[in-house]
């Protein structure tokens, strides 16, 4: 089966353009008591001038790798819980860009917990820190119900 680009190339006689592949994500993580640190550079894609296929590949990779790493390194999470996602980097993003940069990681965390990311038993918090290396920290904080 031909791809859309290959079929279009056949019709027009022009060679098909290939989408740039997403860079592989390092699938190792530093395990903490309450969560993990992923050695990934977290950037917002909302303003990026990038091919949609490359954006989709990166999103799929982040989501799958997040869920897989959590499944390998963490035990089941008791609900209700607060999930704190912290971007570590050399600079900072706007608040709204920080939240959007974690979209696919948030989906991966929800996949790991077996819930949807809008489940009312989970509160999501976002933060940023400056650091020498880029990373993302995921922390699970038990929320006490009174």
Overview of the molecule:
This protein has one domain: 60s Ribosomal Protein L30, Chain: A. Helix content is 34%, strand content 22%. It contains four helices and five strands, in the order H-E-E-H-E-H-H-E-E. The longest helix is centred in the middle third of the chain and has 22 residues. It is globular.
User: Quick one: CATH superfamily?
Assistant: Holliday junction resolvase RusA
**Annotated CATH architecture:** 2-Layer Sandwich
Briefly, what CATH class? Alpha Beta
Number of strands: 5
List low-confidence stretches: 1-5
- Quick check: average pLDDT? 81
DSSP helical segment count: 4
Instruction: Determine Rg (CA atoms, Å).
Output: 18 Å
Class from secondary-structure proportions: alpha+beta
Main β-sheet: number of strands, strand sense, barrel status?
5 strands, mixed
Order of helices and strands: HEEHEHHEE
Number of domains: 1
Shape, please?
A: globular
Spatially, the strands of the biggest sheet line up as 1-2-5-3-4
Distance between the termini: 57 Å
What portion of the residues fall into strands of 2 or more residues? Answer: 15-25%
Task: Please outline what is shown here.
The protein is an alpha+beta fold and 146 residues long. The chain is built from four helices and five strands.
Secondary structure elements and their pairing?
Layout: H1 4-12, E1 30-31, E2 35-38, H2 52-73, E3 81-89, H3 95-101, H4 103-113, E4 122-130, E5 135-142
Parallel strand pairs: 3-4
Antiparallel strand pairs: 1-2, 2-5, 3-5
Helix pairs in contact: 2-4
């Amino acid at each position: 089966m031909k791809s859309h680009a290959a079929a279009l190339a056949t019709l027009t006689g022009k060679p098909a353009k290939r989408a740039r592949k997403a860079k592989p994500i390092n699938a190792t993580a530093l395990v903490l008591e309450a969560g993990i640190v992923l050695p990934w550079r977290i950037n917002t894609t909302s303003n990026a001038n990038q091919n949609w296929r490359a954006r989709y590949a990166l999103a799929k990779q982040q989501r799958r790798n997040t869920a897989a790493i959590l499944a390998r390194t963490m035990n089941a999470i008791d609900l209700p819980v607060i999930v704190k996602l912290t971007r570590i980097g050399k600079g900072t993003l706007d608040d709204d860009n920080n939240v959007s940069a974690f979209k696919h990681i948030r989906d991966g965390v929800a996949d790991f917990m077996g819930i949807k990311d809008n489940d009312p038993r989970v509160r999501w918090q976002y933060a940023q820190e400056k650091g020498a290396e880029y990373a993302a920290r995921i922390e699970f904080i038990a929320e006490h119900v009174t």
